[in-house]
Amino acid sequence: MADNSGLTGTPLGIAIAVISSFINGSTFVLQKKGILRSRDKGCSYLTDVVWCSGTLCMIIGQVGNFLAYNLAPAVIVTPLGALGVLFGAVLASWILEERLNVLGKLGCIICCCGSVVLIIHAPKAVATSRQELEDGLSDPVFVTYILLVVLTLVALIVWVAPAHGTSNIMVYVAICSLLGSFTVPSSKGLGLVAPDVFGEGQPSVGAVALFLGLLGALAVSILIQFFFINKALECFSSNIFEAIYYVTFTSTVIFASALLFKEWMGLTVTDGLAMLCGLTTVCVGVILLRISQEAVINWKEKKGLKKTN
């Protein structure tokens, strides 16, 4: 008989994921509106009601995502995040009067489609215990990857962001996306360690130390992300930032989780080729979004032009 215990909460998990996607889609728009309002008033956006409501939406959305991941398979929950990108684009056109041209709209759709392909064919998590998590955290490949991410983040935050952050959207996007290598794996790790810490009996010192370490990594990464997301919203369109951020963040999370939980070992040739196609699609979409910032498209025929003989 098939074991359906993992699917008992799937409908509820999908419902929570859909609601969270719409809430997350409104986050950047409300924060951007609050920043613009505070700029007109000449005060800090930290005191603006609209900005605070956007921050509250971010917290509620992240809590919803955490619940959804524990009630439904990640391959179902994660693609639903694309709904937030599309909802955010609609909301931004209404509240912020931000208009995406044809290239921007096409790039947004292509990014979402490519991300869904990546997620559907991504390797599935296999770690089910604290011991497997500890083995993954001590693996030389994963340790090397984390060290490279940390060094890259230091370079971006200390040197690149002050010089080019306000002129190149990819700087802030890269910082926030690379931090995804800590946020989502830490969340998954906390779910694996929590039963040993809060279960019956006295928890071991190792379990408590691992739990606190993961919790600290999660808190620090979220706070840094929060800071640079608002820095990006001060300078760039919320439409473009949200679409690119969703794509790069999702791709980074998939890669980090695959290394930590050894998910790549179960990757088939078909899934590998599909992920390569999805990554190519995402790259094309990001390029279109980037070009749309400066492109001016006019489909109307210019009037008043005289024909020359």
Automatic annotation (TrEMBL):
The keyword Transmembrane applies. One of its GO terms (biological process) is axon guidance. It is a multi-pass membrane protein. The keyword RNA-binding does not apply. GO terms for molecular function: magnesium ion transmembrane transporter activity. Pfam families: Mg_trans_NIPA. Its main location: membrane. The chain crosses the membrane at residues 12-30, 42-61, 67-95, 102-122, 142-162, 169-187, 207-228, 240-261, 273-292. Belongs to the NIPA family. This is NIPA magnesium transporter 1.
